[in-house]
Amino acid sequence: MSIDRSEVEKIAHLARLNITEETLAATTRSLGEVLALVDELQAVDTSGISPLAHPLDTTQRLRADEVTEPNRREQLQENAPAAEDGLFLVPKVID
Amino acid sequence: MHKQTLTDIVAGLRSKAFSSEEITRHYLDRIAKLDDTYNSFITVTAEQALNQARMADEQLANGEQAPLCGVPIAHKDIFCTTGVRTSCASRMLDNFIAPYDATVVENFNAAGTVMLGKTNMDEFAMGSSNETSWYGPVKNPWNTGCVPGGSSGGSAAAVAARLAPGATATDTGGSIRQPASLCGLTGLKPTYGRVSRFGMIAFASSLDQGGTLTQTAEDSALMLQVMAGFDPKDSTCVDKAVPDYCATLNDSLEGLTIGIPREYFSEGLNPDAETAVRNALAELEKLGATLKEITLPHTGLAVPAYYVIAPAECSANLSRFDGVRFGHRCEEPKDLEDMYKRSRAEGFGDEVKRRILVGTYCLSAGFYDAYYRKAQQVRQLIKQDFVEAFSEVDVIMGPTTTAPAFEFGAKGDDPVAMYLEDIYTISTNLAGLPGLSAPCGFVDNKPVGLQMIGNYFAEAKLLNIAHRFQQATDWHQQLPAVVANGTEG
Fold it and tell me: Is B398 helix (H, G, I), strand (E, B) or coil?
């Protein structure tokens, strides 16, 4: 399955990745190469084979719904590009 | 002093042949003097290391029994370390200081180790040559014109150049075993779930596993002993008793059946590398093992299945990097969408972006069944190949890589050529099995490795076999010429 420029622009938008006009052609080509590789899977008969999501086939472990972590908001926000009064700052979203 | 193994250093510290401060200072001096050449460290934590070493010396003087008390090691810069930058070799995390320790790091701290620094790697562990690091490529100490492998290339180069006696690493598709092969080291990727992934920055969560890069199997046993075990903070970590890995190192190999998969000796294999592997297998026969040809018929599908599953999981995991809570944010975003898009475009390198795009495509509406579900079904077939093989054999062996280390830029233009570098290692991750690479010879004066794949939780068996092999051979004792004859200082 080949991929064209408009599809690359669409998935770049879905992935929230800015893609410049100059790199679009090269990106389209290299994605095409990778997709050609993974298309080898299409030739395999997998009817009746159950998908394997996790190598050990275990179920998710559960725990009691109890608070175990202390509130470390200030410490965690030290890594934020912009924070104020305990809030993360982002560009204006609603006019 | 730096020619010692980790095991030697433990003994030397116990017998007071040297102090932790002395040995730590020795490695820090080597790093300061030599790492401009190799670029194996992103961050060197000299001051902190010396403080830890002095504390360890006090504890040793008081009869401290922590297993690796005072032993200097390096951590791959994918493991979070409180107060020390954890970059994952990405511009995205160039300024990220984790507010907590990874469980692996916490375990090593409890065992008394001294952290020399954080090692270089492929960005977000995506690569097989260490060329995708934001901090520049790492050079192979055996030949500085060649790559050290990846993604744990910094850990491998640091140990190969004896800038650290051992290092932590991670392996999603071969990122411990392939650099071990290319740098002449012993590299162990444990069973999925054996080592906690908490605080280990996620790439592909159903494949990622922490492990070791060391000079010997014995050293690896010492490190794995500290790393392995249940962690309630990692929901896929397995609650299973950890055996004493050192206790069985010397077990006899008499009666061991080694499966040799026909598919691992295909035409892409360098003939001299094949000879080295065949000679190693003959050596193991002398030690009492029997060889049996087997088949893993779906081997050829491992790389294609991986390059659906790993990018799909990567695109989901890396969606957390949005420029809001931590990580890189672009200058003057005009709105929220612009901020997301430019922050991510600037923060991630080309290979990371490529995998995010491939993963997004495979998971997008209309393609999920054709790609992701299909790949998971093929993953089941690959696992079943191994399950069947392990009903007949105790361990599976073959080459780790098709050839020795390649030159910088040799696989630059074609992502698929780079992906095929992991052709022998990837299926182990898909099945979740443990794998080990041990040095078994040289091709063009560059090391190559023998890969051993064990059944689930058979790390002790792999370490036992590798240790017995290393008792009978001296490939693991070979040093890069500059290190051996001391011309580098």
Answer: strand
